[in-house]
From TrEMBL, chain A:
Statement: the UniProt record of this protein carries the keyword DNA repair: no
Organism: Caballeronia sordidicola (Burkholderia sordidicola)
Subcellular location: Cell membrane
Gene3D superfamilies: P-loop containing nucleotide triphosphate hydrolases
Main location (coarse class): membrane
UniProt name for this protein: ABC transporter ATP-binding protein
SUPFAM superfamilies assigned to the protein according to its UniProt record, in alphabetical order: P-loop containing nucleoside triphosphate hydrolases
Family: Belongs to the ABC transporter superfamily.
Pfam families in the record: ABC_tran
SMART domains the UniProt entry points to: AAA
Positions of transmembrane segments: none
GO MF assignments: ABC-type amino acid transporter activity; ATP binding; ATP hydrolysis activity
From TrEMBL, chain B:
Regions crossing the membrane: 17-41, 53-76, 82-102, 142-167, 179-201
InterPro entries (alphabetical): AA_ABC_transptr_permease_3TM, ArtM/GltK/GlnP/TcyL/YhdX-like, MetI-like, MetI-like_sf
Gene Ontology biological-process entries: amino acid transport
Annotated ranges, domain ABC transmembrane type-1: 17-205
Entry's Gene Ontology molecular function annotations: transmembrane transporter activity
Entry GO CC: ATP-binding cassette (ABC) transporter complex
Protein name: Polar amino acid ABC transporter, inner membrane subunit
CDD domains referenced in this protein's UniProt entry, alphabetically: TM_PBP2 (cd06261)
The organism of origin for this protein: Caballeronia sordidicola (Burkholderia sordidicola)
Membrane topology according to the record: Multi-pass membrane protein
Length: 242, 217
């Protein structure tokens, strides 16, 4: 089993606020890992560090053999391996759905217009939004926007996908349609690391669940861990969620 | 000898509007190019670019345009560089305009949500690609009203070029008034001409701003 993402004893603070206090975790190829935990537990920060949206103070991060903690890391190369989807979708408002997806294909992968369009339609089909190719982000529901954001990431054919609370801004119905897309992705063998509050989804789909508490990996286990938490902190967290 | 205001005078005034427009266009086009460069330098993460740009903006914004005109026109002539009044006025206005537009546009770029940068960065777009393909196209909508608003200022400020002898609308008015001495009529007319040039632009800028606010509601 080869690890695609490897964090070793990662420390990170924002000013005097220490957010990550020695986080270690590994994600194997094809694995889906759900990271849960209260706000402020450092789970989103850990995710952002993997794509080097934040730099770390200490420790090692390796993604597909790339040393992310290296100050001279080739960000271009790193980000071709990693796809990330945010809570706030972050679609480009001045571009249509199709153009949103084609932008990086054209300017980063240097594909021709027709080839880029073909890829875009492919991933849009995958998230069930091929009929919305010409729509603009503001014309779509939150769930649809998030599916486009996933498609935009997928189009770059990353080896691992990071999801940062991608359903937190959505109502239950829209959450469902986004989770279905992620479920399909997992079934296709995509390596996925997601920070989520969707316990039922994490339990059903994740190969492993990581519970983070106060900047540390507090408990790791399979879906069953949510039924039988080993630590009082996880028990409290789960009870508060209900 | 003084006489009445004739159609020849009127023709002379109307003709001088052309030179006000030429000077405005020169200031605006050159100032836009310069302003774009100033904006790029100002938002650069490299301090050796952003600091000088900041100093430039603050220095120029703290100096009256009239003094800039004197520096360019009289200053250069001391060194034997005799520049025509149009060039001197164009140069001074360009420097002035570039500082203001650079600052206005920097503000518009800064107003773009940070996550837009992040999303583009995560798609492996370079900083320049992000700016060109994602940020600037969206900032444009924001930048248009204040830019047109500033253009109105530029048109009015070209009147200062009259003091170095460049014959635009204001100078033409002075010349006519010197011969017929009817300041109320002549400068009133000059004022009306400026108003006719500026008012439609002001209205355009205002209506764009209103539309923008509706969009943001």
């Amino acid at each position: 089993m080869s690890a695609i993402v490897k964090l070793g004893d990662v420390y990170k603070s924002f000013g005097s606020n220490q957010v990550l206090k020695g986080v270690s975790l590994e994600v194997a190829k094809g694995e889906m890992i759900a990271v849960i935990g209260a706000s402020g537990s450092g789970k989103s920060t850990a995710l952002r560090c993997i794509d080097r949206l934040e730099t770390i103070d200490r420790g090692t991060i390796e993604v597909c053999g790339i040393r992310v903690d290296d100050p001279k890391v080739d960000l271009h190369q790193l980000r071709r391996e990693v796809g990330i989807v945010f809570q706030s979708y972050n679609l480009f408002a001045h571009l249509s759905v199709e153009e949103n997806i084609m932008l990086a294909l054209r300017h980063v992968k240097k594909l021709g217009r027709d080839e880029a369009r073909r890829v875009a339609m492919g991933v849009l089909d995958q998230v069930g939004l091929a009929q919305k190719a010409d729509a603009y982000p503001e014309q779509l529901s939150g769930g649809q926007q998030q599916r486009v954001a996933i498609a935009r990431s997928l189009a770059m054919s990353p080896k691992v996908m990071l999801f940062d609370e991608v359903t937190s801004a959505l109502d239950p119905q829209l959450t469902g349609e986004v989770l279905r897309v992620m479920e399909d992705l997992a079934k296709d063998g995509m390596t996925m690391l997601l920070v989520t509050h969707e316990m039922a989804f994490a339990k059903r789909m994740a190969d492993r669940i990581i519970y983070m508490h106060q900047g540390k990996v507090w408990e790791v286990g399979s879906g069953d861990m949510l039924d039988a938490p080993q630590t009082p902190e996880l028990r409290t967290f789960l009870n508060n969620g209900l | 000898m003084t006489g009445g205001f004739t159609t020849a005078h009127l023709f002379y005034l109307v003709h001088s509007i052309w030179w006000t427009l030429v000077l405005s266009a020169l200031a605006f086009v050159l100032g836009s190019i310069g302003g774009f460069g100033v904006m790029l330098a100002r938002i650069s993460p490299r301090r050796w670019l952003s600091r000088p740009a900041m100093v430039y903006i603050e220095a120029i914004q703290g100096i009256p345009l009239l003094i800039l005109l004197f520096i360019v026109y009289f200053g250069l002539s001391v060194y034997g560089v005799q520049v025509p009044a149009l060039v001197a006025a164009g140069l001074a206005l360009m420097v002035y305009t570039s500082a203001y537009l650079g600052d206005i546009w920097r503000g518009c770029i800064d107003a773009m949500p940070k996550p837009q940068w992040e999303a583009a960065e995560c798609l492996s777009l370079t900083r320049w690609q992000t700016l060109r393909l994602v940020i600037i196209p969206q900032a444009l909508r924001l930048a248009l009203p204040p830019t047109v608003g500033f253009l109105v200022q530029v048109i009015k400020m070209t009147s200062l070029a009259s003091v170095i002898g460049f014959v635009e609308l204001t100078r033409a008015g002075q010349i006519i008034n010197n011969s017929i001495f009817q300041p109320f009529l002549v400068f009133g007319l000059v004022g009306v001409f400026y108003f006719v040039l500026c008012y439609p632009l002001s209205r355009w800028s205002q209506s764009m701003e209103k539309k923008l606010n509706v969009g943001n509601r």
